[in-house]
């Protein structure tokens, strides 16, 4: 890793930078973060990151560039920096819905171009990033993967699946947290104080994920282990399904996917 610039460092960009710094993968002095509102980057500045509102200077001083602006701003920022991009640069967009072809049409085919969809868990080293590219250079592909591996897991997928990856990997954080909030509310209703409810639910969800990660089992296999005949678990599960639990979640996922494609 040499030098990296994050252009348009909002919540996601800041999360990525914080994840990289926590992993000791790159020194703060070799990271550039840009944003119009520099006061929003004060926490990164305190960590030693170079902060500015000069996108072109950040590009000139870096070899890996992450475009972290909102989708409707991607075109304008690419047009701003395209004269500073060379074949030595690797350009990574984390903007939803902006295709590799759209990016290459602006910056040129010589610039190595990638799309990545990380999530905000990157800031705590537990991110999930899906990556797509037309770059055939396996060495460069590995370098890009290593960047995102610093704050969790990353995989390469076909570009046509990037919108779906956004819904499951990125929107999914919000879905999971909403589920956890409901669990905590239920825990309070049956007697726990909010702090204890939060601790129990958070560790339970973490443990549930680790079971699937380490065993490779389908969720139903693990559900069967805790659903005894006529027990409280199956009673609760059946009531949730009667109220549309799984159906509501699936409908929400599909609705988010439709929204991206509008």
TrEMBL record:
One of its GO terms (cellular component) is cytoplasm. It holds the Pfam family P5CR_dimer. It catalyses: L-proline + NADP(+) = (S)-1-pyrroline-5-carboxylate + NADPH + 2 H(+); L-proline + NAD(+) = (S)-1-pyrroline-5-carboxylate + NADH + 2 H(+). InterPro entries: 6-PGluconate_DH-like_C_sf, NAD(P)-bd_dom_sf, P5C_Rdtase_cat_N, P5CR_dimer, Pyrroline-COOH_reductase. This is Pyrroline-5-carboxylate reductase. It is found in: Cytoplasm. It comes from Profundicola chukchiensis. Catalyzes the reduction of 1-pyrroline-5-carboxylate (PCA) to L-proline. Belongs to the pyrroline-5-carboxylate reductase family. The lineage of its organism: Bacteria, Pseudomonadati, Bacteroidota, Flavobacteriia, Flavobacteriales. One of its GO terms (molecular function) is pyrroline-5-carboxylate reductase activity. It is an enzyme of class 1 (oxidoreductase). Its main location: cytoplasm. Transmembrane segments: none annotated. Residues 3-96 form the Pyrroline-5-carboxylate reductase catalytic N-terminal domain.
């Amino acid at each position: 890793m040499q030098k990296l610039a994050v252009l348009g460092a909002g919540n996601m960009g800041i999360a990525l930078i914080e994840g990289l710094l926590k992993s000791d993968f790159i020194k703060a002095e070799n990271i550039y973060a840009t944003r119009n509102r520099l006061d929003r980057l004060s926490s990164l500045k305190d960590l030693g990151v170079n902060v500015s509102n000069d996108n072109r200077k950040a590009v000139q001083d870096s070899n890996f560039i992450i475009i972290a602006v909102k989708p409707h701003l991607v075109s304008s920022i690419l047009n701003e920096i395209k004269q500073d991009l060379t074949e030595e640069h690797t350009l990574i967009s984390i903007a939803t819905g902006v295709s590799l072809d759209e990016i290459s049409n602006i910056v040129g085919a010589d610039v190595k171009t990638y799309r990545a969809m990380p999530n905000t868990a990157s800031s705590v080293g537990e991110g999930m990033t899906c990556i797509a590219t037309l770059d055939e250079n396996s060495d460069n592909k590995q370098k890009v993967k290593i960047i995102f591996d610093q704050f969790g897991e990353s995989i390469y997928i076909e570009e046509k699946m990037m919108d779906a990856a956004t819904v499951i990997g990125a929107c999914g954080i919000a879905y999971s947290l909403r589920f956890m909030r409901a669990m905590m509310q239920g825990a309070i209703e049956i007697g726990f104080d909010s702090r204890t409810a939060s601790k129990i639910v958070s560790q339970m969800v973490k443990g549930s994920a680790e079971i699937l990660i380490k065993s490779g089992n389908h969720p139903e296999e693990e559900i069967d282990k805790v659903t005894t005949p006529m027990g409280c678990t199956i009673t609760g599960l059946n009531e949730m399904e009667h109220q549309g639990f799984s159906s509501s979640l699936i409908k929400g996922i599909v609705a988010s996917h439709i929204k991206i494609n509008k």
